[in-house]
Design a protein that fits this description.
alpha+beta; 6 strands; 26% helix; 43% strand; globular
Amino acid sequence: MTMTHTDVVRACFTCYITQDRETAEKLYAEDFTLTSPQDDHIDRTAFFERCFPTAAALRSHELLEVVPTESGEVIALYEYEKLSGERHRNAEVITLRDGQLTEVQVFFGGPPR
């Protein structure tokens, strides 16, 4: 059974929270890139070294919305709380190809209201 784009995105977030890197690596294309206010077009290797392990710094992480767009991308909105008590809400625009993430653009938000 083929997963929808939103299913793949949800699976990636689950892998991140559970730190299931083995499964996650199958969901990210070899040419994957991530861009955020902290990272400018980092590659798959840098993503798995820098970003993927950060779940240990979180007290909670809630995926609020996962919405497909007409252009084939997926927008994900999530809220998280760090162990320090800081809360944030971010959005991501996610591009997929053949059931794998090829690009993620992260937009940092402030504390939820």
